[in-house]
């Protein structure tokens, strides 16, 4: 009995190694629990949807055979120290083809160095904090890295803060308040906003710059400082639960001024906890959960059906997770290998367009240039639209954007 | 404009302060009878809120949810007494400190596994639309918190003064040995105080949940403040916790307004240090004569 058991185990091990050669192993990481969970789980589920589609079709064509994608899933709980541990674990896997994920900028800062050291290809999505990429770029006191295996597939905060500031200027506001949380994401968002205000001609006077902590529920002091300064809009960088506390606090203090901020304002835990107070909130989005194109329709329906929901917790994360997998798969096919180094080179020079749900991606990345982080950033301003909350859903804030996307898709 | 802002800040802060006071009151109840406190009190607040939310999700009416939540809190309080406090007190050890912390951690993990780590909204029939009272914006929801806090504390105080069981409670608090000689069971009275303390924690959870949302970490910030309030006020002054609670809450608001939002937590900590250095028995505490 014991012998047969041992034999079965051994056989199983042999069979696995034999199988291992025919799979592309991708790690999906992110917070699947905690305050950032709507983004983490949506990203993971969007990515899994794409992976199951690819596997159902037989896999990625490499040479004469088709390779299926195997998933390694890790929950970093949105905690920097956990993220760093997971990155170390992944860096130690010698058969890993790549990593997709990370929601929290702090985790990209604490963990990605382990992957970069081993040259493991990673596509960051949907973490948007600028610092995740600029940490590798040239700085005043030291040059950036020469080779980089980290890519980003999200509208980074540079783009988002530009849009937020642009919106405030277009509305002819002259006084704004900036609110942000005390995390890496919030602080870097504040810096981006201040930077953009300067870049766009100093037309906005910042009457208050206020900070809040994760877990804070009473925002009265911060809001009253904004109110006392005469702010005409609140520009904000934070995550769901605290954003909701701000929105509810604004309602209580009768501040009927616009709340505009990072894309995290589309998180379900913001929308649900703010309730009707959240209506009218504006944020940059890369994907709106509306079936305006056939591809968007099949993605949204597929997601709803696969996960038995009527609303994607974070549509942006889900769509980015989905498209990131297709881009990664295209790189594997072009490289004709599951080797992470070869995939990286292919990603930097993708020949064929990739038809995603957000847009059709033409050459999204190029060879890393430490003087220009955009070389490893996929999103440009034109891939991003302004979203607005209306009755518990994120819709297009400008109908012109909606029309433009429909037109682009039909081309 | 300026006085209006100050008034608004004081009122908003004071309302939060009342919740600190209610949790601090829970510390006092058990300290009075047993000279021990439950360091996992925050988890009691959180678990009761989760339990009440589950009742609501099962379609229980609001009044039934409150009763259910309070009974659940009382049961948890009794559990803490049985599992963490009784043996330690019998052995005259300080083991209850560690044991109650451990029970709290267990409760935290249980909540994460049963209900998940997400913050969830807590439905309430009370409106969150602002009313104007002398130029100050205040929501009915906030007023309900204040009413709830005073109602619970008032009821418990009435119980202590007017009922036989309550008098036993006071007797044990005044002098445990003498009370036992009069035929009052100290063990039962301590059980009673833990049950009451759990109930007070549950009430705090139900009152604050619509404002803070419900999640495993909902009480972690509150509990530190409550502890500061209990220590600063003195562990035997019910009247003191209300005053200090209101004072600390208002001070926090004003500090974050005038000094900066990053300094919000500072006054509580400074008050705690000052109280420990200057009046270790609390501002409203009675100096104890310790026989050596």
User: What is the CATH superfamily of the largest domain in chain A?
Assistant: Response regulator
Give the N-terminus to C-terminus distance of chain B in angstroms.
Answer: 58 Å
Structural class of chain B: mainly alpha
Unreliable segments of 5+ consecutive residues of chain A: 12-20
Q: What's the average pLDDT of chain A?
A: 88
CATH class designation of the largest domain in chain A: Alpha Beta
What does this structure look like?
Chain A has helices at residues 2-20, 37-56, 80-91, 105-118, 131-134, 157-170, 184-199, 220-228, 240-252, 268-274, 294-307, 315-335, 340-347, 399-410, and strands at residues 23-30, 60-62, 65-75, 98-101, 122-124, 150-152, 175-181, 205-212, 233-237, 259-261, 282-285, 354-355, 360-361, 385-390, 393-396. In chain A, helix 9 (240-252) packs parallel to helix 10. The radius of gyration of chain A is 22 Å and the shape is globular. Chain A has a six-stranded mixed beta sheet, with helices on both faces. A four-stranded parallel beta sheet of chain A has the order 8-7-9-10, sandwiched between helices. Chain A folds into two domains: 18-155 and 292-379, Response regulator (Rossmann fold, 3-Layer(aba) Sandwich), CATH 3.40.50; 157-285 and 386-409, Response regulator (Rossmann fold). Chain A starts with a helix and ends with a helix. Mean pLDDT of chain A is 88; it is low at 12-20. Chain A is 45% helix and 18% strand. Chain B has a domain at 22-218. Chain B contains eleven helices and two strands. Chain B has a two-stranded antiparallel sheet. Chain B starts with a helix and ends in a 14-residue tail after the last helix. Classes of the chains: A alpha/beta (411), B mainly alpha (292). Chain A binds chain B through residues 33-35, 37, 77, 182, 210-213, 215-218, 220-222, 224-225, 228, 240-241, 244, 248, 251-254, 269, 272-273, 275, and chain B through 1, 5, 8-9, 12-13, 16, 112, 116-119, 121, 128-130, 137, 139, 211-213, 215, 217, 220-221, 253-254, 256-257, 260-262, 264.
